[in-house]
Design brief:
The protein has 151 residues and is of the alpha/beta class. The protein has five helices and seven strands; from the N terminus they run E-H-E-H-E-E-H-E-H-E-E-H. The protein has a seven-stranded parallel β-sheet with strand order 4-3-2-1-5-6-7, sandwiched between helices.
């Protein structure tokens, strides 16, 4: 099973939340698992969408308590590593979708590019050379095409 990483801000407006939620739904509907930092904002919205469609949701948490995960995480992984857990999220994922985000998201994109992972941005205005799309549907189509090319 392929795992899609969702990265983005931990506090978001309703529009970004809705985009992340739709992205999570599409991840599950296409048979992928979802991994994120397991907290709020983009991570929670995508987790909720995936969970509602029967998907598997992993949360790689910055702290030491499983209870810090959002309510939609199936497998909470407490690391006690704070932001250093970002590399674990990226290593776990087969592809990354960045939605909005700031400095933490920048670090995850940088790690993903170093590891030569496919990175797609939705409403992501960070200074990286990544595939940029307007909708969750476009992001999933690029990922599916990328996985087919790898075979």
């Amino acid at each position: 099973m392929k795992i899609i990483g969702i990265i983005g801000g931990h506090t978001v407006n309703k529009r970004i939340y809705d985009i992340a939620y739709e992205t999570g739904k599409l991840i599950a509907e296409n048979g992928f698992a979802l991994v994120s930092g397991g907290l709020g904002g983009v991570m929670e919205a995508a987790s909720k969408g995936a969970k509602e469609k029967g998907g598997i949701v992993l949360g790689i948490l910055p702290g030491v308590s499983k209870s810090s995960a959002n309510a939609f995480v199936d497998i909470p992984i407490p690391t006690g590593m704070s932001e250093m857990r970002n590399i674990l999220i990226v290593r776990t994922a087969d592809a990354i979708i960045a939605i909005d985000g700031k400095k933490g998201t920048q670090s995850e994109i940088a790690f993903a590019l170093v590891l030569e992972k496919k990175v797609i941005g939705i409403e992501c205005n960070l200074p990286f050379n990544i595939d940029r799309v307007n909708t969750p549907e476009e992001a999933i189509e690029i990922i599916k095409k990328n996985f087919k090319e790898e075979q």
